[in-house]
Amino acid sequence: MGYWLHRNIIEPGKLPLLLALTAFVLTFVIARVITRMIRAGKGPFRNIDSGGVHIHHVVPGVLLMVAGGFGAVASGREGVGPALCAVLFGVGVGLVLDEFALILHLHDVYWTEQGRKSVEMVVMTAALVSLVLCGFLPFGVNDVGRQELADRGSVILSVGLNFLFALLALSKGKARIALFGVIVPFIAVIGAIRLARPHSPWARHFYRRRPRARARSQLRAFHHDRRWAGLSRKVQDWIGGAPDGPTGASVHTADRR
To answer: Where are the beta strands (DSSP E) in 32-183?
Structure first.
Protein backbone atom coordinates (compact mmCIF):
# COMPACT_ATOMS: atom_id res chain seq x y z
CA MET A 1 0.00 0.00 0.00
CA GLY A 2 2.83 2.36 0.90
CA TYR A 3 4.63 1.65 -2.39
CA TRP A 4 1.43 2.20 -4.39
CA LEU A 5 0.76 5.49 -2.58
CA HIS A 6 4.28 6.75 -3.21
CA ARG A 7 4.42 5.54 -6.82
CA ASN A 8 0.99 6.75 -7.95
CA ILE A 9 0.15 9.67 -5.65
CA ILE A 10 3.18 11.23 -3.96
CA GLU A 11 5.74 10.87 -6.76
CA PRO A 12 3.47 12.40 -9.48
CA GLY A 13 2.61 15.25 -7.10
CA LYS A 14 -1.05 14.24 -6.61
CA LEU A 15 -1.04 14.22 -2.80
CA PRO A 16 -2.72 17.67 -2.51
CA LEU A 17 -5.41 16.53 -4.93
CA LEU A 18 -6.00 13.37 -2.89
CA LEU A 19 -6.20 15.39 0.33
CA ALA A 20 -8.60 17.88 -1.26
CA LEU A 21 -10.84 15.09 -2.55
CA THR A 22 -10.83 13.29 0.81
CA ALA A 23 -11.63 16.50 2.69
CA PHE A 24 -14.37 17.32 0.18
CA VAL A 25 -16.12 13.94 0.51
CA LEU A 26 -15.78 13.78 4.30
CA THR A 27 -17.07 17.33 4.70
CA PHE A 28 -20.12 16.61 2.56
CA VAL A 29 -20.86 13.41 4.51
CA ILE A 30 -20.47 15.14 7.88
CA ALA A 31 -22.59 18.11 6.77
CA ARG A 32 -25.37 15.80 5.60
CA VAL A 33 -25.27 13.77 8.82
CA ILE A 34 -25.54 16.95 10.90
CA THR A 35 -28.35 18.50 8.85
CA ARG A 36 -30.29 15.24 8.90
CA MET A 37 -29.92 15.07 12.67
CA ILE A 38 -31.15 18.66 13.00
CA ARG A 39 -34.03 17.85 10.69
CA ALA A 40 -34.99 14.90 12.88
CA GLY A 41 -34.55 16.91 16.10
CA LYS A 42 -31.77 14.66 17.37
CA GLY A 43 -28.32 15.40 18.72
CA PRO A 44 -26.75 18.58 20.11
CA PHE A 45 -26.63 20.49 16.81
CA ARG A 46 -28.78 23.56 16.22
CA ASN A 47 -29.29 26.21 13.56
CA ILE A 48 -26.78 29.05 13.43
CA ASP A 49 -28.29 32.54 13.53
CA SER A 50 -26.58 35.90 13.84
CA GLY A 51 -28.67 38.99 14.44
CA GLY A 52 -31.77 37.27 13.08
CA VAL A 53 -29.93 36.17 9.91
CA HIS A 54 -29.79 32.43 9.21
CA ILE A 55 -26.17 31.51 8.44
CA HIS A 56 -25.97 28.78 5.80
CA HIS A 57 -22.86 26.64 5.69
CA VAL A 58 -22.14 27.88 2.17
CA VAL A 59 -20.83 31.06 3.85
CA PRO A 60 -17.90 29.47 5.73
CA GLY A 61 -17.46 27.24 2.69
CA VAL A 62 -16.78 30.23 0.46
CA LEU A 63 -14.35 31.68 3.00
CA LEU A 64 -12.45 28.39 3.22
CA MET A 65 -12.32 28.11 -0.58
CA VAL A 66 -10.89 31.62 -0.81
CA ALA A 67 -8.32 30.90 1.91
CA GLY A 68 -7.33 27.55 0.41
CA GLY A 69 -7.18 28.85 -3.16
CA PHE A 70 -5.09 31.96 -2.47
CA GLY A 71 -2.99 30.02 0.03
CA ALA A 72 -2.17 27.42 -2.61
CA VAL A 73 -1.13 30.12 -5.06
CA ALA A 74 1.09 31.80 -2.48
CA SER A 75 2.63 28.72 -0.86
CA GLY A 76 4.33 27.22 -3.91
CA ARG A 77 4.97 23.48 -4.13
CA GLU A 78 7.26 22.80 -1.19
CA GLY A 79 6.53 22.13 2.48
CA VAL A 80 3.21 21.48 4.17
CA GLY A 81 1.58 24.59 2.71
CA PRO A 82 0.09 22.93 -0.41
CA ALA A 83 -1.31 20.04 1.62
CA LEU A 84 -2.90 22.35 4.21
CA CYS A 85 -4.37 24.59 1.51
CA ALA A 86 -5.71 21.54 -0.32
CA VAL A 87 -7.53 20.41 2.83
CA LEU A 88 -8.98 23.89 3.40
CA PHE A 89 -10.09 24.08 -0.22
CA GLY A 90 -11.64 20.61 -0.11
CA VAL A 91 -13.59 21.42 3.05
CA GLY A 92 -14.80 24.66 1.50
CA VAL A 93 -15.93 22.97 -1.71
CA GLY A 94 -17.76 20.33 0.31
CA LEU A 95 -19.71 22.98 2.21
CA VAL A 96 -20.45 25.05 -0.89
CA LEU A 97 -21.58 22.19 -3.15
CA ASP A 98 -23.73 20.77 -0.36
CA GLU A 99 -25.81 23.91 -0.88
CA PHE A 100 -25.31 24.18 -4.63
CA ALA A 101 -29.08 24.14 -5.22
CA LEU A 102 -29.48 27.11 -2.88
CA ILE A 103 -26.97 29.10 -4.92
CA LEU A 104 -28.61 28.02 -8.18
CA HIS A 105 -32.15 28.95 -7.15
CA LEU A 106 -31.23 31.79 -4.77
CA HIS A 107 -33.69 30.25 -2.34
CA ASP A 108 -33.49 27.72 0.50
CA VAL A 109 -34.43 24.54 -1.36
CA TYR A 110 -32.23 22.21 0.71
CA TRP A 111 -35.00 19.73 1.56
CA THR A 112 -37.04 20.10 -1.62
CA GLU A 113 -36.98 18.35 -4.99
CA GLN A 114 -34.76 21.13 -6.36
CA GLY A 115 -32.30 20.34 -3.59
CA ARG A 116 -31.42 17.07 -5.31
CA LYS A 117 -29.18 19.11 -7.61
CA SER A 118 -26.75 19.53 -4.73
CA VAL A 119 -26.35 15.77 -4.35
CA GLU A 120 -25.96 15.35 -8.12
CA MET A 121 -23.28 18.03 -8.24
CA VAL A 122 -21.35 16.50 -5.33
CA VAL A 123 -21.43 13.00 -6.84
CA MET A 124 -20.34 14.24 -10.28
CA THR A 125 -17.56 16.39 -8.83
CA ALA A 126 -16.22 13.51 -6.73
CA ALA A 127 -16.34 11.17 -9.75
CA LEU A 128 -14.54 13.60 -12.05
CA VAL A 129 -11.82 14.44 -9.52
CA SER A 130 -11.35 10.72 -8.88
CA LEU A 131 -10.83 10.14 -12.60
CA VAL A 132 -8.21 12.89 -12.72
CA LEU A 133 -6.57 11.39 -9.63
CA CYS A 134 -6.43 8.00 -11.39
CA GLY A 135 -4.58 9.50 -14.33
CA PHE A 136 -7.29 10.64 -16.72
CA LEU A 137 -6.75 14.13 -18.11
CA PRO A 138 -9.17 16.49 -19.87
CA PHE A 139 -9.85 15.49 -23.50
CA GLY A 140 -8.01 12.20 -23.06
CA VAL A 141 -4.57 13.36 -24.22
CA ASN A 142 -2.96 11.20 -21.55
CA ASP A 143 -3.41 8.00 -23.54
CA VAL A 144 -0.98 8.83 -26.35
CA GLY A 145 2.53 7.37 -26.35
CA ARG A 146 5.79 9.29 -26.26
CA GLN A 147 6.34 9.12 -29.99
CA GLU A 148 2.77 10.13 -30.65
CA LEU A 149 2.97 12.88 -28.06
CA ALA A 150 5.92 14.34 -29.95
CA ASP A 151 3.68 14.74 -32.96
CA ARG A 152 1.67 17.83 -32.05
CA GLY A 153 -0.77 17.16 -34.82
CA SER A 154 -1.91 13.91 -33.21
CA VAL A 155 -2.48 15.62 -29.88
CA ILE A 156 -4.41 18.49 -31.47
CA LEU A 157 -6.53 16.03 -33.46
CA SER A 158 -7.27 13.96 -30.33
CA VAL A 159 -8.29 17.02 -28.33
CA GLY A 160 -10.32 18.46 -31.20
CA LEU A 161 -12.28 15.27 -31.84
CA ASN A 162 -12.98 14.69 -28.17
CA PHE A 163 -14.13 18.28 -27.75
CA LEU A 164 -16.37 18.00 -30.82
CA PHE A 165 -18.00 14.80 -29.55
CA ALA A 166 -18.52 16.40 -26.14
CA LEU A 167 -20.25 19.39 -27.75
CA LEU A 168 -22.48 17.10 -29.83
CA ALA A 169 -23.44 15.09 -26.75
CA LEU A 170 -24.19 18.32 -24.89
CA SER A 171 -26.36 19.63 -27.73
CA LYS A 172 -28.32 16.37 -27.60
CA GLY A 173 -29.18 16.94 -23.95
CA LYS A 174 -26.66 14.45 -22.56
CA ALA A 175 -24.77 16.75 -20.20
CA ARG A 176 -23.36 14.04 -17.94
CA ILE A 177 -21.93 12.05 -20.85
CA ALA A 178 -20.47 15.24 -22.32
CA LEU A 179 -18.84 16.15 -19.01
CA PHE A 180 -17.31 12.73 -18.46
CA GLY A 181 -16.34 12.63 -22.13
CA VAL A 182 -13.98 15.54 -21.50
CA ILE A 183 -12.06 13.34 -19.06
CA VAL A 184 -12.41 9.80 -20.45
CA PRO A 185 -11.26 9.43 -24.07
CA PHE A 186 -14.12 9.30 -26.58
CA ILE A 187 -16.83 8.37 -24.08
CA ALA A 188 -18.73 11.34 -25.51
CA VAL A 189 -19.04 9.40 -28.78
CA ILE A 190 -21.83 7.40 -27.13
CA GLY A 191 -23.87 10.53 -26.54
CA ALA A 192 -22.97 12.04 -29.90
CA ILE A 193 -24.22 9.15 -32.04
CA ARG A 194 -27.37 8.26 -30.10
CA LEU A 195 -30.77 9.93 -30.41
CA ALA A 196 -31.11 13.34 -28.80
CA ARG A 197 -33.28 14.01 -25.77
CA PRO A 198 -36.74 15.36 -26.80
CA HIS A 199 -36.25 18.93 -25.55
CA SER A 200 -32.58 19.30 -26.38
CA PRO A 201 -31.31 21.97 -28.82
CA TRP A 202 -30.46 19.21 -31.34
CA ALA A 203 -34.00 17.78 -31.24
CA ARG A 204 -35.63 21.19 -31.55
CA HIS A 205 -33.56 22.00 -34.61
CA PHE A 206 -33.13 18.69 -36.45
CA TYR A 207 -36.25 16.73 -35.39
CA ARG A 208 -38.70 19.55 -36.03
CA ARG A 209 -39.66 18.20 -39.46
CA ARG A 210 -38.91 14.55 -38.71
CA PRO A 211 -41.91 13.17 -36.78
CA ARG A 212 -40.52 9.63 -36.71
CA ALA A 213 -37.23 10.72 -35.18
CA ARG A 214 -39.10 12.92 -32.71
CA ALA A 215 -41.36 10.03 -31.70
CA ARG A 216 -38.39 7.65 -31.31
CA SER A 217 -36.60 10.24 -29.20
CA GLN A 218 -39.58 10.66 -26.89
CA LEU A 219 -40.09 6.92 -26.58
CA ARG A 220 -36.45 6.24 -25.80
CA ALA A 221 -36.37 9.05 -23.24
CA PHE A 222 -39.53 7.67 -21.61
CA HIS A 223 -38.11 4.16 -21.27
CA HIS A 224 -34.73 5.46 -20.08
CA ASP A 225 -36.27 7.68 -17.40
CA ARG A 226 -38.65 4.96 -16.24
CA ARG A 227 -35.76 2.54 -15.92
CA TRP A 228 -33.23 4.79 -14.20
CA ALA A 229 -35.06 7.73 -12.59
CA GLY A 230 -36.41 5.70 -9.69
CA LEU A 231 -33.03 4.13 -8.93
CA SER A 232 -31.33 7.52 -9.17
CA ARG A 233 -33.79 9.06 -6.73
CA LYS A 234 -33.28 6.20 -4.24
CA VAL A 235 -29.51 6.64 -4.37
CA GLN A 236 -29.85 10.41 -3.93
CA ASP A 237 -32.20 9.92 -0.96
CA TRP A 238 -29.75 7.46 0.60
CA ILE A 239 -26.85 9.90 0.19
CA GLY A 240 -28.49 13.21 1.02
CA GLY A 241 -31.82 12.39 2.62
CA ALA A 242 -35.30 12.35 1.12
CA PRO A 243 -36.83 15.76 0.38
CA ASP A 244 -39.97 17.03 2.03
CA GLY A 245 -43.35 16.08 0.57
CA PRO A 246 -45.43 18.51 -1.50
CA THR A 247 -46.86 20.06 1.63
CA GLY A 248 -43.51 20.30 3.36
CA ALA A 249 -45.26 19.21 6.53
CA SER A 250 -42.38 17.21 7.95
CA VAL A 251 -40.13 20.13 8.79
CA HIS A 252 -39.40 23.71 7.74
CA THR A 253 -36.37 24.12 5.52
CA ALA A 254 -35.16 26.92 7.77
CA ASP A 255 -34.94 24.46 10.66
CA ARG A 256 -32.31 22.24 9.11
CA ARG A 257 -29.14 23.95 10.33
So the answer is: 49-50, 53-54
